Amino acid sequence: MAKYTTSDQIDLPALTQRYKLDNAQLAPLAGGAANSSFKLSTTSDEFVLTILDNHDWPSAQRLAAHTQAVFQLGVPTTEVVPAPDGSLTTQLRDQPVILKKYIAGTVQEPLPVPLLPEAGRILAQLHALSPQSPGFEDLPAGTRRLSNTHLAAIPQFADRDFAAWLTDRLDRVHTAEAGNPRPRTVVHGDLFADNVVVRQDGQLSVLDWETISLDDPLLDLGMAAVGLAQDDGVLDPERLEALLAGYRDIAPLSDQDAEALPLEVMHAALIIAFHRYYRHNIRFPDPAKSTIHRAMIRFVDSVESVIKTG
Question: Is a pLDDT exceeding 90 seen at residue 180?
């Protein structure tokens, strides 16, 4: 299983000395599939301390720089707190850590429909950023896409029906994408409700820039549809339209893009289906979660019905 840091493993005196903090107290925060996060409170401020359990030092530095770049370019997200020497990351017990400003608010799953247009606007705002902006010099490409290694693993899946289903639909998506390449933009890659904070002022902030990359904005919009426009396991037209209405406020979709979007929603769902199977059946086998990948089959069926009737 993946290993995570517990509060008793954190050298709090060393951390407070590093950041010049007084009377600091730690409390674990829920969520986070890859790293360990804690709320760090002082007499005057509140922070989030993230232990990057699954990062090495270079990747931690990139994550901190990308997060700070997005914040400084005006996307509503958390601000990285530099150490007194200006560095955005530090190291505790051989693990990289990032300290960020705490955003007071709640995660609401599902995100209420009236808030979906704002989520769409934030995504369009992100897609409009220049990849040449400071902090984006080393953005990877296509982080959320399945790699050649991932694709090669599918024929070995023990769930043979799922492997055949996944292969068939990925082939369909890849064929369509090859005939209609689109410019790459800065994308989030994981705009699900658990990465959105409803702040105390009722506005939204987006968290978790682990999968930021340069990629097709329609695939990113499709991933947001998987994350935010589901209802009872299927694509909900009302939720999708609310998300798209906000997106179009900033980035109008051409007729060609609108026609291509359902296929990119399906592509995003196939990526999620793969990772659910791969994580819970191969990397970290968990009998309790060994079949959750199959929920995406029903979701993809609902998207395919949109493609056929659109």
Answer: no
Q: What is the DSSP code string of 3-27?
A: ----GGGS-HHHHHHHHT-SS-EEE
Nearest Cα neighbor of 199 from 119, 88, 141, 123 is 119
Query: Do 124 and 54 belong to one domain?
Result: no
Alpha carbon distance 211, 89 (integer Å): 18
Query: Residues 50, 121, 113, 237: is their CA dihedral positive or negative?
Result: negative
Query: Which runs of consecutive H residues, i.e. helices, occur in the chain?
Result: 12-19, 57-72, 116-127, 148-153, 160-178, 217-228, 237-250, 255-278, 295-309
Is 98 inside any structural domain?
yes
Distance CA 22, CA 3 (A): 29
Residue 1 lies in a domain: no
- Assess whether pLDDT exceeds 50 at residue 1: no
